[in-house]
Structure formats: structure tokens, C-alpha cells
Write a sequence for this structure.
């Protein structure tokens, strides 16, 4: 293969993706108007099935959740490639001002999952048209429940990866306004953090606010715990394997002259390795129980495990970076220098299959990435022309994965 062949292939894929863009945008807008939350997503599932209808796919739906799995067999033997799109929205009231804004009260596609679905459907159409040159097969994973519902894990439990020829490569895109429109951004190794939820109930002894010495004030104890947890991170955790701990909610008391019996607080803990994740859990428990005991109170700690660390395979991430450069040129491809402390349940797939997740830039051109509303904002707006790059990159990964397994 000459050095020019990949570029011609990339140009052709991008041109085909741009030709599909009107249908991709139309599907995205239809999904955006009708967001659903959680694992069910019956209307979203129906729209995905309709969009895939007529393509040469083996389509299956989830047994207990509203997932869709579609398989495209290529014209030649080769590896299985898994491409993923998450489908669920968030509990927000949209204030983006878009003409196709959410028509569902208190639900919005504020994290761009509508664009993920539309791009993956576009990739399925593009690859179906190129089926004769496709080696192996492609599994299109349309997943509900990414926003805290562990949808990817449920799909795995329902047999997503239990195929006669299991996936050899997995790939996913996540749209982001942190990067200029149409750019591709990823890194080797840890990309996103593990995210665990912390809930603490401090139990003291209630009394009159004028006589705190006759009570055990759980609010004072909770305040000391919150401050001590921040200090613990800086004193006990290696700065080169970082952690973030945030207490985001504290609730206690009813009025001005009563010391309550309990105080409740909750927050999140983010880590980039399983070793630090375990260490943080142990350290949090020691701080919470120790400070409560020092004040004659007790504390109940619940740590709810969230998503694991999202770790990009070094080899696959490197290949994706190369493919992206072939598609759009080096100036629009960034090897991200540091992980991001958000969490993603594509991590469950990457624990089982070598693969990578990349960020597709979609910041509206009239805005700077630093100033644009970001994912999870009720005002976020994604630049739709960027989706052509996403469609083409999905297709390129599927078409070129046979080269990676040689």
C-alpha cells in the first residue's frame, strides 16, 4: 500500500459521510426532541430500529433494557469490531433556544447522546454500502442507561460480547464542546476516571441550640469531616496518580434553635487507577469514622461503586490517532496530554476488549471552547457538521481493523 492510498480512502470516507449528513442531522434532531432517561428508552429504541430498517443487519433488542445490537457481516473473513453509541438523556429542562429543543418536560439530550446515535446509524449505512470490502463483522452497540445506570454492564451481562467471534477491537466517540468543531481528541492509557458515590450520615445527640454542651452537634462533626476529606487527598494520595473528592450536598436541621440528631452529606470520588481507588475508600472510611468518634458521634459511610476507569488500549488508541490524521489532517487531531475526571460506562467494554474512546470536537465556530456551554448544561449546543467526521471515523475503524490484528 502506498503512502497515498490511505489518504484517498480517508477522503472518500469523509465525502461519503458528508453526503449522509442530512439524514444523520434529521435523525439527531428527532432524537433530540424526544429524550428519554434511564434503561428503558422504548421510544428511542423504536426510532433506532426504524432508522436501521432495510440495512443488511442482524438486529436484536435487549431482554431487560431498551438496547439495540445490530451486526453487519462483511464480504471477507476478519476480526469483529464493536462500535458503540449511548442513547439516554439527562433530567434537565432545556434552555438552548434550538428550534428542535426537547419536547419532554425535564429531560434533555444535554450530553450529546443523540448525536452519538445518529453518527452510529450513519456509520452503519456507510459500511453497509461498502459491505463487499469489509473484513470480518461489525457489532453496532446502541446502549441505554449511560448516565449512571450501568447500561453497558447490563448489555455485557445479557451476552453482548459472548459471540462466536468475540470483538477484537472496540471503539466509541463522545461529542464535546471542549474542542473545536470536527477535531478528534484522545490519548493512550487512562482517559476518564472511575466515579464512586459517597454518602455519610453523622449521628449525634439533639438539643437546644443555646446549650450545645448538652448535645452532640452532628453539623459541626460533618463540617470537620468535609474539610478533613479534602486534606486527606492532598496528604495521602500520590499527586502523580491523582484523586478528586467533592462533598456536593449537606443536609441537616429544621430551624434556628434546634441542634438536630443527624446530618447527611454526599459527594463523588474520582480516581485514575484501581490501586488509588481502593486506597481512597480505605482513607475515607478512616477519616469519617475517626472524626465522628473523636466528638462522641457515630457515622455511617456508604460508598456506592460507580464506573471503572476508562482505559484506552495503547495500540488501538495509536491506530485511531493515525486514522484520524488520515481523515482530517494532523492539525485537527490532538493527543490529549492528561486524563479527564469524568466517568464513562464504556469502561466496562474496555475492561474486556482492547479499544479506545475519542472525543469529537463540536464547539460552535462562533464560540471559544473555553466559553461555550459544555455537556450537562441545559444550554449546550453542538455543531452538527462535525458529525460527518464521527461517521467517517467509525467507518474507518471498522474497515481498517483487520490491519491491526495481522
Amino acid at each position: 500500500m502506498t503512502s497515498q492510498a490511505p489518504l484517498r480512502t480517508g477522503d472518500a470516507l469523509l465525502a461519503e459521510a458528508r453526503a449522509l449528513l442530512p439524514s444523520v442531522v434529521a435523525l439527531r434532531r428527532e432524537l433530540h426532541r424526544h429524550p428519554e432517561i434511564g434503561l428503558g428508552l422504548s421510544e428511542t429504541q423504536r426510532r433506532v430500529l426504524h432508522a436501521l430498517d432495510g440495512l443488511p443487519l442482524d438486529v436484536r433488542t435487549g431482554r431487560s433494557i431498551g438496547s439495540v445490537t445490530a451486526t453487519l457481516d462483511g464480504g471477507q473473513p476478519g476480526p469483529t469490531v464493536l462500535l458503540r453509541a449511548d442513547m439516554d438523556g439527562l433530567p434537565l429542562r432545556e434552555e438552548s433556544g434550538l428550534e428542535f429543543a426537547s419536547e419532554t418536560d425535564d429531560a434533555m439530550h444535554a450530553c450529546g447522546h443523540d448525536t452519538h446515535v445518529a453518527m452510529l446509524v450513519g456509520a452503519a449505512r456507510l459500511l453497509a454500502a461498502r459491505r463487499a470490502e469489509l473484513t470480518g463483522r461489525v457489532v453496532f452497540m446502541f446502549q441505554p442507561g449511560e448516565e449512571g445506570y450501568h447500561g453497558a454492564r447490563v448489555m455485557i451481562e445479557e451476552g453482548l460480547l459472548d459471540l462466536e467471534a468475540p470483538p477484537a477491537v472496540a471503539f466509541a466517540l463522545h461529542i464535546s464542546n471542549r474542542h473545536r468543531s470536527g477535531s478528534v481528541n484522545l490519548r493512550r492509557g487512562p482517559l476518564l476516571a472511575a466515579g464512586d458515590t459517597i454518602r455519610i450520615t453523622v449521628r449525634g445527640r439533639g438539643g437546644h441550640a443555646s446549650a450545645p454542651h448538652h448535645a452532640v452537634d452532628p453539623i459541626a462533626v460533618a463540617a470537620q469531616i468535609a474539610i478533613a476529606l479534602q486534606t486527606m487527598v492532598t496528604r495521602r494520595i500520590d499527586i502523580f496518580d491523582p484523586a478528586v473528592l467533592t462533598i456536593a450536598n449537606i443536609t441537616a436541621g429544621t430551624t434556628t434553635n434546634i441542634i438536630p440528631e443527624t446530618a447527611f452529606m454526599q459527594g463523588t470520588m474520582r480516581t485514575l487507577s484501581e490501586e488509588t481507588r481502593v486506597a481512597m475508600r480505605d482513607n475515607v472510611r478512616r477519616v469519617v469514622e475517626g472524626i465522628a468518634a473523636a466528638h462522641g458521634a457515630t457515622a455511617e459511610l456508604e460508598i456506592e461503586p460507580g464506573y471503572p476507569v476508562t482505559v484506552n488500549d495503547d495500540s488501538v488508541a495509536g491506530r485511531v490517532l493515525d486514522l484520524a490524521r488520515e481523515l482530517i489532517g494532523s492539525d485537527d487531531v490532538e493527543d490529549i496530554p492528561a486524563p479527564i475526571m469524568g466517568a464513562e460506562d464504556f469502561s466496562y467494554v474496555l475492561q474486556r476488549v482492547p479499544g479506545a474512546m475519542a472525543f469529537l470536537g463540536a464547539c460552535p465556530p462562533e464560540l471559544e471552547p473555553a466559553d461555550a456551554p459544555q455537556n450537562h448544561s441545559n444550554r449546550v449546543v453542538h455543531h452538527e457538521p462535525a458529525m460527518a467526521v464521527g461517521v467517517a471515523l467509525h467507518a474507518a475503524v471498522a474497515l481498517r481493523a483487520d490491519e491491526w490484528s495481522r
Summary: Residues 1-8 have pLDDT under 50 and may be disordered. DSSP finds nine helices and 16 strands in the chain. The first strand starts at residue 58 and ends at 61. The chain has two domains: 5-193+309-404, 197-304.
